[in-house]
Structures are given as structure tokens and as C-alpha cells.
Sequence to fold (230 residues):
Amino acid sequence: MTIANSWQAVIDEQSLLPYFSDLSSDIQKQRAEGIAVFPQEKDVFNAFGFFELSETKVVILGQDPYHGIDNGICQAHGLAFSVPKGIKVPPSLVNMYKELETDIDVFSTPSHGNLTTWAQQGVLLLNTVLTVQQGKAHSHAKLGWETFTDAIINTINEQHEGCVFILWGAHAQKKGKQIDTAKHCVLKGPHPSPLSAYRGFFGCQHFSKANAWLNQQGKTTIDWSLPPSS
Fold:
């Protein structure tokens, strides 16, 4: 995946800072020691390869990459909530599909969990932490990624306008507390995980609300439908 130029500039700027050097060294050391780190190195910045910063329409903020293997395939591929085709759809994404079925008339639940077609339309599927050890959720929390993703969010907030930020759960909402609501639309609600989806995620209509707001800004809306099969 080739990173878009404007995002590469942000990454390059962050790479000059001490925290990023320490972060990169820690991850490289783990990989060198044979520790399985997900996603694969080539996919770590996958979310930044589909469009330029100025083309960002929606940011959906996740927390931690998936840390398992299914059918011999790494679940994580650098897009929050998304998995490669051929892998069982994770529970949170199952619930996102349930909400989409009721919120978007043309949506039909696919047999896969690959959300690449959303990314191709300007949806930044951003995890707070971009890597994780296999089988160890949150194992790379506090390693430095939070500082990096803060920089990404702040850059969008400051250098762009007319973006929809979808913040599910307390963690995402805290992460996005500095977003300028005079310039951007912020949609908040419970996380789609099975533990919290019934506390208000179902019925939130965030997908249609995002499109309604984009339409008001004179922007092309997101086609949330996905290819039906793997």
C-alpha cells in the first residue's frame, strides 16, 4: 500500500519526534525476536493509502487492532473494524451491519467483513493504537501510538473542515474531545460491541446522519453498501 502524500507528510513529521523513534524501535525489536505483531508491517498504515487528507469525509475511530488469526489469515489489516475477506465477521462488525440494515435502505449484510470500499470513498478507519501482539489485546497500548493518532486527529481538525467524526464508546469520545464542532460534525454513541450495543448503539442512525451532514456541506455522500460475497 502506497501512503497518500499528505498523510505521508504527517507521518514523516511525527517520525522525527523521540516518541515515534522509541515506538518504532520497540515494534521492530519485537518482530525481530519472533513475536507476532499484527497487522503485518506492510499494513500498519493501510488506512492512509486510499485518499489525501483533504479528501477525508468520515473518521470512524476504533481502539485496538484485532489480535487473532482465522483460517491462517491475520484478522487485522490496518483498517479499524475491518477484516480481510475469508475471515469470520467479528462481533462488533456484526452489530454494525445490523444497524446498517435498519439505517440504510440499500444496505444488505455481506458474507465478509472487508470495509475497503468505505476507505476508497474517504472514510478513515482509524484505530487509536495501530499494532498489537498476537493474542494479547491492548499489548501495544501506551507504547506511543496514542500520541501519533492524536496528531492525526488534530491535523484533520485543524487543516480540514466538513468532516464527520463517528465516536463510539467512552474511549473514542475522550480521544475526540478537542474536535472543533463549528467545523466538523461529531456523532457520539455506545460502542457496537456485544457488551454495549443494546445501550443505544442500535438505532443511533449514525450512517444516515453522516450522509445527511455531508450532503448539507455539498459533499458526495458515502455508499455504505458492500460487495455481497467473499
Helices lie at 5-15, 18-32, 91-103, 116-119, 145-159, 169-175, 206-216. The first strand starts at residue 37 and ends at 38. The two ends are 21 Å apart (CA to CA).
